[in-house]
Amino acid sequence: MAQTIRAEMVASVHSVLSDVGDEVVIGDTLVILESMKMEIPVLAEQAGVVSEISVAVGDVVREGDVIAIVI
């Protein structure tokens, strides 16, 4: 089953640590967001393969925006 990973708040994308095709396990950091000078890791909640990364460094995400999909 695919897991759609969404932003939980307004933030800027500080770094992207995973690429499409990467195998991930639960707890792997996919992206790091920055909000109010705090870094917020975005973690895989299931094991699988990253099928989509929807953000790039410098992008601003809003609550509910898709960050990545893991299948």
Automatic annotation (TrEMBL):
UniProt KW keywords: Biotin
Keyword Cell membrane: no
Residues in Lipoyl-binding domain copies: 1-71
Gene3D superfamilies reported in the protein's UniProt record: 2.40.50.100
Alphabetical list of InterPro entries matching this protein: Biotin_Carboxyl_Carrier/Decarb (IPR050709), Biotin_lipoyl (IPR000089), Single_hybrid_motif (IPR011053)
SUPFAM superfamilies, per database record: Single hybrid motif
Name this protein carries in UniProt: Unannotated protein
Taxonomic classification: unclassified sequences, metagenomes, ecological metagenomes
